[in-house]
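queue> holo job accepted (pyridoxal-5'-phosphate)
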Amino acid sequence: MSAVESMTAEKNSPTTSVEHSAWVDQFSANNYAPLPVVIARGEGCWVEDVEGKKYLDMLSAYSAVNFGHSHPEIVEAFVEQAKRLTLTSRAFQNDQFGPFCKEITELCGQDRVLPMNTGAEAVETALKTARKWGYQVKGVAPDEAEIICCEGNFHGRTITVISFSRDPQFKDGFGPFTPGFKVVPYGDAKAFEAAITPNTVGFLVEPVQGEGGIVVPPNGYLTEVRRICTEQNVLFIADEVQSGLGRTGKLFACDHENVKPDVLILGKALGGGMMPVSAVLASNEVMGVFKPGDHGSTFGGNPLGCAVARVAMRILIRDKLSERAAELGEPLMDRLRELNSPMVKEVRGRGLFIGIELHDSAGGAKKLCKQLKDEGMLCKETVENVIRLAPPLIIEQKDLDWAFERIARVLCP
Ligand SMILES: *Cc1c(COP(=O)(O)O)cnc(C)c1O
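queue> job finished
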């Protein structure tokens, strides 16, 4: 018996979904309201619950499982590295970190990388980078730096990040908040430009908003943002934690307008669905503001995470997963529109990053996600009225067809 098997076989430990949920209800903080499914294993796009029922995963852990569950090559890299070396801290060097840095900077077309673990940590790191750049390079007076963000944003859950959050629930009871942020409407380059002052050091933006409801900005928005940032000497900080690494049908969502941000934030899929690996990338000038001791992370740049990220990046390029997301995603959106479901207000997205916005009369996205779950397909609402479809990028056409049938049944009963 393996270690995992013997742990799950322990006396009194739960076996059914209902028993598992009871333990979670009793012993876990109540900060999530998951769909009632207890997953025990996964392979590719499919997962299986503790009762052995199979589901198609159309959420991919918010795009962290872009390579599918337990991708054999990523598992192999993970196991090999886990046996060899997992953590040194950055008090010492490790032999995965240098290659990781070279490969990720080449992939992203940036000079330098600062590795962290979670997306929120990388966002915090990007904000710190922009502030320090503002003081050291732009010449902003001490403690006066401002960063502009967008309505409808999602950048994580730390206190600083929720200080400019869209959702009152994310903030309620967590104040006082971090000052120095301004919020402007998303997709409105003029509003952004109007909000800039001599103290503005950065503009933090998702090139496609994910948690905000899969919101694609108007054509030309990112180009305008790039132009304004350059003219006004403000750092363009792109949060591609969810939209990056192939999800939208290009390597980065910024590539749809051929713009390069000054600061690029990655996470989620970078860890191959196995390790929390996030990163901030920037030019020599911008990343050059850090000196030893300014910032750090015990696990950031750990050899296990680096090994997994390296193989994940290799698979992404070798298997042309960005192209795949475009080829599979655009026709799926067309088919969803052609359903002409009376419940659906709009189908939108890029690549395999798809939002189905419902009319109020549909009774909420949550209810439909439950129905889809009963049909064998897992997805989740983002904002109240949007169903997000974001399957692993390795998904096969036949599985998407299978999903489409279920969606059609639920949206056109
Ligand atoms: C998920 C997400 C984050 C936060 O990532 P965590 O790993 O959950 O901290 C930040 N930005 C965007 C755009 C995200 O989608």
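queue> The mean pLDDT is 97.
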